[in-house]
Every structure is written in C-alpha cells, then in structure tokens.
Design goal:
Layout (H helix, E strand, L loop, with lengths): L1 E9 L1 H4 L8 H12 L2 E9 L5 H15 L6 E6 L7 E2 L2 E2 L3 H18 L2 E4 L7 H21 L3 E2 L2 H4 L3 H9 L7 H12 L2 H6 L6
Parallel strand pairs: 1-2, 1-3, 3-6, 6-7
Antiparallel strand pairs: 4-5
Helix pairs in contact: 2-8, 3-4, 4-5, 7-8
Length: 202
C-alpha cells in the first residue's frame, strides 16, 4: 500500500463536532482513500472555536511534528467560520486580517508540503452566512493567486436538505453523521483530492 501521512488543520468542522460517529468529513475521506489502497496515517488537528489568528500561531509546530520529511506528508486546511462570528459588536477577526492570516499560512505551508484548502460551510444564521460567503470568495481569490487548490463547499451544502436539517436540529452550526457524509462526498469527488488519491490498479 502507498503510505501517506495527512494532517487536517482547522476548527470544529474539521474536528467533526456533532458527529456521533466521531469521523466528520475528514475521517470519512481518509476511509475512502484507504479503501483505494492507500495506507493513511490521519491526524485531525481541528480545534473548536479557533480563529485563523490562533491557527496561524500553531499550525507549523503541530504539522511538522507529525510529518517528518522522510514521509509522504500532506496538509488540508479548512477554517474561517469562527473569524466571521460576532463578539462584542464586531467580527472576531476582520476580513483583511483573515486574508492576511490565510496568506501567511498557505504561503509557508506550500513551500513544505502538498496542500489543499476547503472553504467553511453554511450554518443556520443568514447574517453570518453572508459573511462566510464573502470570506470564502476572498479565500478563493487568494488560493488562485497562490496556486493552491481550493474547494468552495458552501454553494453545494446550501442546497443540501440533509446538511441544513441536521444543522438546525443540532446546534445551529454543526450537522450530525449524515451531514458530514454529504460534506465528505463533495471533497472526495473533488478533482484536486482525486489527483492526490487516484484509484490504484491492482
């Protein structure tokens, strides 16, 4: 089997918060890659309530510890929802600072590892969703500039009754197992992910 070590870096959606199966979308796409014949060592580095500023300060230390240079190490980033949360009358992180943080993280990471970035998903708050859409579009432009593959899952999950029903029925932000299965399906059928893990001919 082809051995791959992969870190998923982000916040509660990476963590898989709300999933009673404790897999989230990241765990599920690793199961899928394993079934294709890849020996996956999977590190979930999702931290609940974390912003891009906090992530910027920890990602390299945590990832480099888990991905020694002698191994095929890769990183998937997904963050942004917590940046757009209103606290004390303003967003936790201003858009310009979110973009600056993402630029720093992605610019440094791509020098060291193959990387991908996945957008934050939709939640059950229309006002915050507008901010998430704007930030996701800005992230998309940044990734295009940096030549980092970027997947915007928001428009797809926005149309998913399963995702939104589970989000509304749970805590207003996170889905349950079926919602994360939908998220995983989007990512594992993404061209950039398929290029990382093509089917192995036996």
């Amino acid at each position: 089997m082809n051995e791959v070590r992969i870190c998923f870096v982000g916040e509660s959606f990476v963590n898989g918060t709300g999933d009673p199966e404790c897999l989230g979308w990241a765990g599920r796409i690793c199961i899928n890659a394993n079934r294709k014949g890849y020996d996956i060592t999977y590190y979930n580095l999702g931290v609940r309530r974390e912003t891009s500023s906090e992530l910027k300060n920890r990602w390299l230390r945590e990832v480099s510890y888990r991905l020694p240079k002698e191994y095929d190490g890769r990183v998937v980033f997904s963050f942004g929802t917590n940046d757009t949360t209103i606290e004390n009358g303003k967003t936790r992180i201003e858009v310009k600072d979110s973009i600056a943080n993402a630029r720093s993280i992605l610019s440094d990471a791509k020098k060291l590892y193959p990387i991908l970035m996945v957008s934050p998903p939709q939640i059950a708050d229309n006002e915050q969703n507008r901010r998430i859409v704007d930030l996701s579009e800005q992230f998309g432009l940044l990734c295009q500039e940096l030549d980092v593959p970027y997947l915007n899952v928001f428009p797809v999950l926005e149309k998913s009754r399963i995702w939104m029903n589970e989000v509304r029925g749970y805590d207003g932000a996170h889905p349950r197992a079926a919602g994360y299965r939908e998220f995983a399906e989007i990512v594992q059928n993404w061209e950039a992910w398929l290029n990382w893990f093509p089917a192995i001919k036996v």
